[in-house]
Every structure is written in C-alpha cells, then in structure tokens.
Specification:
Chain A has 8 helices and no strands. Chain A has helices spanning about 10-20, 25-50, 50-65, 80-95, 135-145, 150-160, 165-170, 175-205. The chains are: A mainly alpha (about 210), B mainly alpha (about 80).
Chain lengths: ~210, ~80
Amino acid sequence: METIQKKAGEDTSELTLVQAAKKGDLEAFSELVKRYDRNVFRIAQHITHNEEDAQDVVQEAFLKAYQNLDQFQGNSKFYTWLVRIAVNEALMKLRRRRTDRTVSIDEDVETDEGTMPREVADWSPNPEQLYGQSELSEILKKTIQGLPPGFRTVFVLRDVEGLSTEETAEMLGLSIPAVKSRLLRARLQLRERLAKYFKLKRDGNGQP
Amino acid sequence: MKCNDFLKELTDYLEGTADAQIRIELEEHLHWCHDCEVVMNTTKKTIEIYRDNQVYELPDTLRSKLHAAIMTKCRHSKPPNKTS
C-alpha cells in the first residue's frame, strides 16, 4: 500500500527537476508528475467525491503547474505549491456540481454536531476486524464525505497525507489557528460518526 | 481542567506539542475523566484508521493513462519560461 511519500533526501533532486522543467525539460517534469500524481489524485477524490472530476483535477493541476512554473519561486516546496493549485481546481469542480455554489475553503460552518462528544463508548481496539476491507473502505468514504469541504480538506492534508499544520495552512491560505480549529472539529466529527458504526456492530446490532 | 478545556488542547496533546505544564494538567484530567480518555483513544484510532486504509488509491492503468494525457497537454503547451 502506498504510504506518505518520504520527503527526506528528495529536496535537492526535486529542485534540480523543477529547474530543468522550468527550462522546458519535459522528462524532468514527467518525473515530478510520477512523484506526486498519487497524492494529488487522493486529495482530489476526497474533495470532489467523484472519480471523473478527480481525474480532471490531476490533469489540470499538473498542466497549470507546468505552465506557471516560472512563477514558482522556490520559497516553498514544489509539492506544497502543486497541492495548492490542485485544491483550488478541486474546489472549483465541487462548486460547479453544487447548486448553492458557496463551497469555499474559508467556509467555517457551525454544524449541528458541534464538537462536544456525545458518543463515549470505547470502540478503539481493532474496529477494522469487525468489517471486511471493502466494507470498511465504504464506511470510511461515506463518513468523510459527510464533513463540510473545508473540514475534510484540512483532515485529508494533515491526517491522511501527513503534512504539517504549517504546510497545510500555506496550501490552503489559512492561518495556523484556523487549520487547528478545523482539524479538531473534523477529527471529532469523524470520530462521532465512526462510533455509530463500530459501536453497534460490536454490540451485535448490525447497521447503525 | 474541564472536559471542554481538554478538547481544546487535544490536537496539541496528540501531536506531542502541548506545553509541559498543560500536558501535566491534561494527564491529570485523563486520570479521573473516563469519557475524555475514551474520546482521546477513539480520536487517535480515527486518525490511524484513515491513515492506514487509503480509500482512494490510483489504479496503475488509470495512472498511466493520466500520465500520458498530462504529458501530451504539456507538450502542446508553451514551455514555462515563455508564458510571461
């Protein structure tokens, strides 16, 4: 299974690749695509919930990155810059599909759920063993899809892709306290929703 | 420390970035508050379960197709240093 890409030791060669690509070296750019396409696809899928849209986002994000490479200053990592482009593309796709067209990363919605935990039964030891892999995967998808886009984007970047709070803030153009606050609420809401599945299954009641 | 304060510090506590003094207070709270202990454990598990079960992997065939499409588009686009 693909894990989070190791960044150590890659920075130097990444810079070399970026510099070559800036001069129009397509081979070098192709290497950059191979390095990050899986991550960009995952992030796009989580935001759009639509495979076709996610495929478009991957293509558009890399094309935009290539076309605008001269604007990449190298103050941040190429990956941070790339993901920022991809997140914007993904949010645009999502906006087009939604009728209210208000989807924004700044969206700081007050949901009914709040953050105060209601479900305090302990399901933490091995809930994975209660379900088969594909069933578990469906539960995880369904659960994260229920979160507001701004929350799930922060959760995906921080907890699924393993980026730092600072990197996430930079990618999304948010302040560090805003990232922290969204992350906390995303984690607690996911926890609450997963509890409904895991607790009931453990109690032998089947579906929530 | 109340449960509400515990929740506010939960992210920093899980990251290991909470101040030493806050850390002591959090651990004291956990000592007697079973609910917060459960919330902490299940939150940790929530993060782990999403990290360990990547739900959106890019299949190899689709990956090759996308890669080819991206490179074709780039080839037909102006090189980056000529766009500005």
